[in-house]
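Q: Give me the 3D complex with adenosine-3'-5'-diphosphate.
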Amino acid sequence: MLFKQQAWLRQKLLVLGSLAIGSLLYLVARVGSLDRLQPICPIEGRFGARSQAEFPLRALQFKRGLLHEFRKGNTSKEQVRLHDLVQQLPRAIIIGVRKGGTRALLEMLNLHPAVVKASQEIHFFDNDENYAKGIEWYRKKMPFSYPQQITIEKSPAYFITEEVPERIYKMNSSIKLLIIVREPTTRAISDYTQVLEGKERKNKTYYKFEKLAIDPNTCEVNTKYKAVRTSIYTKHLERWLKYFPIEQFHIVDGDRLITEPLPELQLVEKFLNLPPRISQYNLYFNATRGFYCLRFNIIFNKCLAGSKGRIHPEVDPSVITKLRKFFHPFNQKFYQITGRTLNWP
Ligand code: A3P
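A: Here is the predicted complex, encoded as structure tokens.
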């Protein structure tokens, strides 16, 4: 009898003990998950109503793996619905400049848990055929994201294409516009190098940079050469300013993004009203590549493709001097309009 009572008591204690441990575990888990969903930093947004929302950043980071799967197309409608994923129009666009470091900027911003990049250049606003397909076509080209995240796309041709400012304005007059610039002569040579490489790949010959950049008849800078025209940043910016106030633009120093990316990215975080989340941990210098590469976590890191960071051909120093002299007054105007002085020669 006594033995039976003891066994009953032991069983009861066991049940009570399990219940207590279970409750304790539940509480710990609940507090943990609540903490994860707790907004870390409220965002004071200039993005309208939704931007006033707070970004549960740690939760977003936690779900990034999932997003990655969705981006690869490994997703069903059910999963999209279940995870509240949406395809959102961009709330910021890197509009240029070609060879300014647009890819590096997009990839580096994508390190931020509240940012989702459109991987491909969409060319919606600069390509009439694409534009005619309508805004829903454009939205469907965007990656899946959580509603609190912001989508960013980059198409460097936007900066120099006549029709683009008005078209973007019609989509969203308060959109944020990012322009990454490099010292104009270096950018023009980089532009030339890209075209040259394309020609060489097709076994075609091409002119020397000097021949294209300098008009042989006048010996002056050839302003008809596209690589030169693109580097007259102020001319293009002035067209954009007919539609958007200067406060809606942020100028990124592309030369500094190469040598010292973090402070440039922190300025962009500020401009986008994002809490600072990109850190030195996310960026490491790769001596073989000669550039900073990206570290997402202990497992996943990557450098940009080999087509970024090409070796430029040698250019006659007198041509470089001539080009720098030519760009100088345009640069001064650009500093004056943007309020960002870049100390180019
Ligand atoms: P170069 O190939 O002339 O060196 P874009 O993406 O707009 O085409 O710009 C390409 C430029 O991005 C490259 O020009 C390179 O200098 C610059 N760049 C900036 N940061 C880089 C990085 N971390 N890795 C590779 N290239 C980078």
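A quick observation: Confidence is low (pLDDT under 50) at residues 22-53.
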